[in-house]
Write a sequence for this structure.
């Protein structure tokens, strides 16, 4: 599908143009950080930005989600005026701007970018990962070493088909920004002192040997690419692949 180069959005008075920069920005729609492509105001020094997903969400209408049976999600472009703190059920972060809210007695809230997280992804090497509403029993996220991201929120997670690799969406999201904001290459090898790199996740996987290491790299590559594409937009030009990191 071709991408729309320029749009007019109800949240801003000026035309917005599709742009790309290799630095982080804050989306003025959902108030979350972004990387890669975004829509920006045509006027100089205006500083208005929207994720692609946030910019195009208003016309999407009612959306269903397989994790939530018998309810529909409706897009809202205004903050709630109540004192209630709204939390995204996928990443556990506060929702302060654009959102999708479900129908039904118990409303579920999702960031626009979290709603579009792919449910499965595979590559040519036979690696397959699946999005789970919660981690399987007796398993933990390999980043936070917990089954939940908070007492109230289980948090969505990507789990490999073999079950050995389990990462909360929220934990991966935080780690990507921690690395990028600290000007650290996302997947570079570590010398044991830099604990913010993805290389350390290999140690937590518990797999040893050349073949197991190669497989684990492929798993991590698939999951990280999914997270970047879904949550931050198409950030391929600023993404260094795992295979390059360990040559």
């Amino acid at each position: 599908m071709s991408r729309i180069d320029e749009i007019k959005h109800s949240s801003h008075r000026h035309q917005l143009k599709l742009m790309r920069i290799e630095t982080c920005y804050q989306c003025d729609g959902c108030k979350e950080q972004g990387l890669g492509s975004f829509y920006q105001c045509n006027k100089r020094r205006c500083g208005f930005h929207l994720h692609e997903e946030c910019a195009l969400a208003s016309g999407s209408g009612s959306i269903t989600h397989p994790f939530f049976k018998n309810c529909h999600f409706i897009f809202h472009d205004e903050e709630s005026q109540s004192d209630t703190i709204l939390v995204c059920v996928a990443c556990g972060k506060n929702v302060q701007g654009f959102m999708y809210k479900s129908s039904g007695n118990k409303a579920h809230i999702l960031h626009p970018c979290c709603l579009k997280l792919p449910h499965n992804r595979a590559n040519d090497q036979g690696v397959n990962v699946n999005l789970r509403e919660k981690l399987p029993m007796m398993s933990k996220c390999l980043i936070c070493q917990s089954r939940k991201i908070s007492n109230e929120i289980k948090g969505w997670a990507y789990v490999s088909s073999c079950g050995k690799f389990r990462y909360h969406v929220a934990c991966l999201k935080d780690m990507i920004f921690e690395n990028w904001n600290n000007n650290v290459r996302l997947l570079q090898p570590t010398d044991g002192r830099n604990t913010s790199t993805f290389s350390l996740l290999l140690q937590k996987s518990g797999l040893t040997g050349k073949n197991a290491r190669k497989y684990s790299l492929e798993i991590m590559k698939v999951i990280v690419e999914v997270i970047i594409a879904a949550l931050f937009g198409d950030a391929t030009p600023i993404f260094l692949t795992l295979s390059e990191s360990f040559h």
